[in-house]
């Protein structure tokens, strides 16, 4: 029988704290904006809002790419590292959005950043990553080997080159 209140795993806690920090920052911004002497500012460069849109799209795209990578990774510590990278990219979109919200008072930018963060968190769930670890095939050996070869043929990046690049960036 499973315990009624299982302990949360470290990855789940990290994801929770990443989300909590951004949400608390948004609550603080709301309180600051309710002060009678607060006046909205103007961004020095209007392009910043377009940068947030582009970064949000990029963050969700990176999460989608990392989702496949996490599913194929056999090493648990590497899977955790990939999850953290994807979550951090998503959190970055939310942080940019809340900063724009803080300066201008326009909440839609915070909402866009939160949407990108939630999408990246939903795509990169720690529970799904542990279940699909390594993309292990439970079918017969020949069929499983053919499936892995088919996935490798569809990949447009040489896995050894990508691994070398990732390893050099991780140092």
Summarize the structure in words.
With 171 residues, the protein is mainly α. The protein folds into two domains: 17-33 and 42-136, no CATH class; 139-171, no CATH class. The chain has helices at residues 10-33, 47-72, 76-104, 107-123, 126-131, 141-154, 159-170. Helix 1 packs parallel to helix 3, helix 1 (10-33) runs antiparallel to helix 4 (107-123) and helix 3 (76-104) packs antiparallel against helix 4. The radius of gyration is 20 Å and the shape is flat. Residues 131-149 and 152-157 have low confidence and may be disordered.
Question: Brief description of this entry?
Answer:
By secondary structure, the chain is an all-alpha fold.
What are the defining features of this structure?
mainly alpha; 7 helices; 2 domains; 171 residues; flat
End-to-end separation: 43 Å
Strand content: under 5%
Order of helices and strands: HHHHHHH
Which percent range fits the helix content?
Answer: over 70%
* Whole-number total of structural domains: 2
Largest sheet: none
Got a strand count? 0
Please state the overall shape, judged from the principal axes of the Cα atoms: flat
Spans where pLDDT lies below 50 across 5 or more residues: 131-149, 152-157
CA radius of gyration is 20 Å
User: Overall pLDDT, averaged?
Assistant: 79
* Structural class computed from helices and strand pairing: mainly alpha
Helix count from the secondary structure assignment: 7
């Amino acid at each position: 029988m499973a315990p009624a209140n299982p302990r949360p795993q470290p990855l789940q806690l990290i994801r929770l704290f990443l989300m909590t920090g951004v949400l608390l920052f948004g609550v603080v911004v709301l309180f600051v904006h309710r002060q009678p002497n607060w006046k909205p500012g103007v961004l020095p460069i209007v392009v910043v809002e377009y940068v947030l849109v582009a970064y949000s799209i990029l963050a969700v795209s990176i999460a989608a790419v990392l989702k496949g990578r996490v599913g194929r990774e056999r090493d648990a510590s590497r899977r955790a590292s990939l999850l953290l990278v994807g979550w951090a990219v998503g959190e970055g979109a939310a942080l940019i959005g809340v900063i724009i919200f803080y300066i201008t008072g326009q909440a839609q930018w915070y909402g866009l950043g939160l949407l990108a963060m939630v999408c990246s968190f939903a795509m990169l769930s720690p529970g799904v990553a542990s279940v699909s670890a390594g993309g292990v095939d439970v079918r017969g050996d020949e069929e499983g080997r053919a499936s892995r070869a088919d996935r490798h043929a569809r990949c447009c990046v040489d896995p050894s080159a990508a691994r070398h690049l990732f390893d050099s960036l991780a140092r």
